[in-house]
Amino acid sequence: MPPKKLPYSDFFDETLTRDVEELLSRFQGADSVRYSDFSLIWREMRCADVFLGICRSGEAKSFTRVSLATAMKYFLPPYSFQIRVGGLYLMFGFYHTQLVVPPVNIRLALKDITAVQKFLVDSLDAGHYDIVYIYEKLVAARAFHYTAMPHHLHFQKQKKPKKDPVCSSFLGRTSAVHDLLSLDLLEELSNVHIHYTKLKESTVEVGSSVNMSQRDLVPPLEKCMKEFVTWQQKTFSQGQNDQNTDDEGDEKQEKKKKRQSKAESSSRVSLLQSIKQKSFQNLPVASKSRRHRQTQVVDSPGSGAEQVPEGRKKWQRPPSLRARTWKSLGVPEEETKTQAWLLSAPEEWESRRLRGTSKRQHADA
């Protein structure tokens, strides 16, 4: 009996991805990167029970590999810093709660090592030492398997592989403009600009000839920054809506393709049936008495009367070499009943017969 097909693909699981996104969204709502806050959410959602209920060791190993790959996906760009921290904590939790012995390692591709090192440097600069501690704990446990590719290479791919969705709310956004708006930098820039204009007006010699800055610099700059923030929010929200509509459109297209395939198959079946019916209608039906018909007697000069069944032709011997030669030379062949291989036989037989009779006469005398 062949093994049962696994309900998840080689790269990700839809149900597990939804649970992971729920966990990361709660961690993002906590507005913190501390491991204590993450562990509290982990225990509330009982994420350690995700590996329970799998009986076969091969299936457990495959599901563990998929779980670690899902956590690794959120640990790498283009997600925001907080989501990447949540992905690191998630890898730590999945690795130490798995039931496979020996434990399954975390695949880290060589192309992603640079991004991981930059992430660790940024964490150290920001003073997030618990992030570096968790990563070093995984390194000390030899949890990482440095590979050339993030997933196992398979030559037999699915015809319609599952799409790995990307949550737009987890993506990293440009926060430099928000920092400028939130801080008092614009007010300080306005004060500096006013002081510069006063110094310029007090100097009579260069007051009218030199113009190095734009008048009213701060208001247009603030307007541009607010327009950028509004555009960014609108773009991300529109992107999320487009993703939902794209998913719905893909589902509709799949349903439409299924209907078209069913219609094509039904039309093909009906066409084959019509062809078969036409072919059987044109087939001549023999009567039941055909098998009991009497054979006709055909007379032939060489072999006498033979009984040949009706509908079959008698096999005829091809013409001899002599006949074909005469025909090619244009010599008419004389019709004779004497067989070709007996042309010289009568003279010999006649001489033999005469000698035999003369001997008998001498013996009688």
Brief descriptors of the model:
single chain; 365 residues; mainly alpha; two-stranded antiparallel ribbon; 4 strands; elongated
Description:
- A hairpin with a 3-residue loop joins strand 3 and strand 4.
- With 365 residues, the chain is mostly helical.
- A two-stranded parallel sheet has the order 1-2.
- Among the domains are: 14-154 and 162-170, no CATH class; 177-203 and 217-236, no CATH class.
- 57% of the residues lie in helices and 5% in strands.
**Cα distance spanning the termini:** 107 Å
Low-pLDDT runs of 5+ residues are: 298-306
- Coarse morphology: elongated
Strand arrangement, major sheet: 1-2
Mean pLDDT: 76
Treating each run of at least 4 consecutive H or I residues as one helix, how many helices?
A: 11
The biggest beta sheet is recorded as: 2 strands, parallel
The helix-and-strand class reads: mainly alpha
- Order of secondary-structure elements: HHHHEHHEHHHEEHH
Write the layout of secondary structure elements.
Elements: H1 14-29, H2 35-45, H3 57-75, H4 81-97, E1 106-109, H5 113-126, H6 129-140, E2 144-147, H7 176-182, H8 185-202, H9 218-281, E3 296-300, E4 304-308, H10 321-329, H11 345-364
Parallel strand pairs: 1-2
Antiparallel strand pairs: 3-4
